[in-house]
Amino acid sequence: MKNKIRDVRKARGITQSDLAEAIGVGVPQISRIESGKVDIPLSRIVQIAQALGCQIADLMTFDDFVGYAAVPEPNVVPVKMEGASEERMREDLPIFGTALGAPKIVEGEAVEQTMLNTGEIIQYVKRPVILNGRADAYGLYVQGQSMEPVHMEGDFALAETKRPAKVGDDVVVYLRPRTEDDDGERARSVLLKRLVRRTANYIELEQFNPAVTFRIETEEVLRIDRVLRLADLIG
Length: 235
Hints:
The protein is an alpha+beta fold. The chain has 6 helices and 11 strands.
């Protein structure tokens, strides 16, 4: 499938950057998709076909179809949405610099963590209209595969500081550096995980790949930001 996606894209004169913007991922993720380094969910294949203006069959071989043959019946009901807003999307939502950090060892388990440089804005992306005027909203690229398939490596997640996170939310947990220059205000690394429990003494977090639930002591946590869902962005 990897070569068919690349060939169709090139035949239509579409760059990797164009395709990445159209389906809401970073260019590195497009490169990984085309090189076969990641498994491609069916929902992503549908997105790619729409962005390339082709049929799903144009991107898949017969064997690929067999692999996706056992797709379960949907358990959702379509909801009719309003037309496009007359207010245009502004390209001013900041994406902070991210890189995969050394694993954090929690109770003998290696937990994937991300280095976040909030002082470096690597790019601006189009801001959903509902976030206009929201200075607390920002984005960061997903590094690593610990939250797949919910958050794919190379995608970017939108987070907010305004509303407190609740159990069941995906969150960006800022960890204190635990060094001599720890002033209680700056964080050098973050965890993108799901919030399972929150107490006065610890927070319990979950990741999916590999499946691990673990605890972080409250004194290690600088702050917790809530990851925005699709429902938040469409009101």
